Amino acid sequence: MGQERDLIVKNKGKITCNRSILLSIINLATKEICGVSGLTSSFKAKVANFFTRNNHEGVSIRFNPNGSLSVDVYIRIYYGYSVPDIAYKIQENIKNGIAAMVDMKTTKVNVHVMGVDFETNEQPVTA
Fold first, then answer.
1. CA 112, 61, 70, 102 torsion: positive or negative?
2. Assuming Cys at both sites, which of 4, 46, 55, 108 could form a disulfide with 70, CB separation 3.0 to 4.6 Å?
3. Tens digit of pLDDT for each residue in 46-105?
4. What is the pLDDT of residue 1?
5. CA-to-CA distance for 76 and 30, rounded, in angstroms?
6. What does the alpha-carbon distance between residue 104 and residue 86 come to, in Å, rounded to a whole number?
7. What is the model's pTM?
8. Residue 125: per-residue pLDDT
9. Across all residues in the chain, what is the average pLDDT?
10. How many Å apart are CA 127 and CA 124, to the nearest integer?
């Protein structure tokens, strides 16, 4: 597929959404979760990013044939935070952000924890 995705809205016309907008929404939705140190990527993704322009580090998206979206996010977290809690919050935040901003359905949000950072200015949140 190209760099743009068309959305048809009840025969009223179509909305064109650039791929970089979706990548930015996902990037911001991930970084605003408490406990996320940052986004990172594997060696394979870094090589792919070198040859393409509209990829954000640590974010990969795929358009499904039914018009929905599948997302992979590669993150590092701070020591002391619950991995399942952070992953769930990221999944919900990405789904809600994409649905609210571009009205697309997200079928999968895969969160890959690539590492843990030990030094932080943040304090772990308990509860």
1. positive
2. 108
3. 665 566 554 577 888 888 888 789 999 999 999 999 999 999 999 999 999 999 998 888
4. 46
5. 11
6. 23
7. 0.75
8. 61
9. 80
10. 10
- Which residues make beta-bridge pairs with 6? 16
Residue scoring higher pLDDT (67 or 42): 67
Q: Which two tokens stand for residue 46?
A: 């870094």
Q: 65 φ, ψ to 5°?
A: -60, -25
- Decide: residue 125, CB within 10 A, 0-12 exposed, 13-18 middle, 19+ buried: exposed
User: CA 57, 53, 69 angle in degrees (round to 5)?
Assistant: 65
- Angle at which helix 83-102 crosses helix 19-31, to 10 degrees, equals 140
Residue appearing with tokens 């039914």: 66
Exposure of 57 in the CB half-sphere (CA atoms within 13 A): 13
Place of tokens 């030990």: 118
The two tokens of residue 33 are 């979760």
